[in-house]
Amino acid sequence: MLWPLPQVLAHRCGGALAPENTLAGLEVAVKHGCRGVEFDVMLSADGFPLLIHDETLERTTSGHGEVSRHTLAQLRKLDAGSWFDAPFAAERLPTLDEALARCAALGLAVNLEIKPAAGFEHQTGRVVADHLLRGRANGVPGLVISSFEDASLAAAMEILPGAIYGLLVEDLPEDWASRAAGLGVHAIHVCADALDAAQARTVRDSGYHLAVYTENDAERAKALLRMGVETVITDFPDRVRASDMFPA
């Protein structure tokens, strides 16, 4: 199976250069030459998938409390940009469908991380997969679905078995191979700081694709690519530039 993601992805839409998980971040990613982005998807109280990382609203919006206790209508009223910088005050939490449509229009590949609130692992996986099944990602040049949650991946695979899936881990646990095989994923996504050359070789030799997060040093990113990593997710697409990343 061909790997559909480019070598460099902007983390949470625009990395540290825009309010995270917003449509503005997608524009910033393109401005800095990215051909792909990573973003997080969670459910509202009424079951709509939208982009946000935290289970609570305080850090990246004007709201308070748990995302899963607010309806989509309530969440859409929140300011998701002012915390970053005043010019982004008009930013709102985008729905998954809006984000995918914008990525398609901008020619951005997507690493979609299923980021369920606690207790919603299965439901979030199914809802995300259902939206994708209904063609919401049409026109997106590449798509990988990843998650730390085995239950979310398994639920998504029930609905959308033909997609490409990645198992997210912080470091490479001893049981990574059995977990990956049991789930039927195609890739391992691991913290860049926790990966060494021997581990990278083991993952690739085992037949899995390999991505890392979140590497913000250009030279380290190049070294990771030489180790066999196929995609580097970064907060600083202006530093870790796709045009500079091709291994020597």
Verbal overview:
- This protein is of the alpha/beta class and 248 residues long.
- The chain has a single domain, classed as TIM Barrel (Alpha-Beta Barrel), CATH 3.20.20.
- 30% of the residues lie in helices and 18% in strands.
- The chain has a 9-stranded mixed β-sheet with strand order 1-9-8-7-6-5-4-2-3.
- Helix 1 packs parallel to helix 3 and helix 4 runs parallel beside helix 5.
- The longest helix is centred in the middle third of the chain and has 13 residues.
- It is globular and about 50 Å long.
In short:
This protein has 248 residues and is an alpha/beta fold.
Could you report the average pLDDT, rounded to the nearest whole number?
97
Q: Assign the CATH class.
A: Alpha Beta
- Strands, total number: 9
User: Structural class, judged by helices and strands?
Assistant: alpha/beta
Protein name: Glycerophosphodiester phosphodiesterase
InterPro entries: GP_PDE_dom, PLC-like_Pdiesterase_TIM-brl
Pfam families: GDPD
GO molecular function: phosphoric diester hydrolase activity
Topology diagram in text:
Elements: E1 8-10, H1 23-31, E2 36-43, E3 49-51, H2 72-76, H3 96-106, E4 109-114, H4 121-133, E5 143-147, H5 150-159, E6 165-169, H6 176-183, E7 187-191, H7 197-205, E8 209-213, H8 218-226, E9 231-234
Parallel strand pairs: 1-9, 2-4, 4-5, 5-6, 6-7, 7-8, 8-9
Antiparallel strand pairs: 2-3
Domain GP-PDE: 6-244
Protein name: Glycerophosphodiester phosphodiesterase
GO molecular function, one term: phosphoric diester hydrolase activity
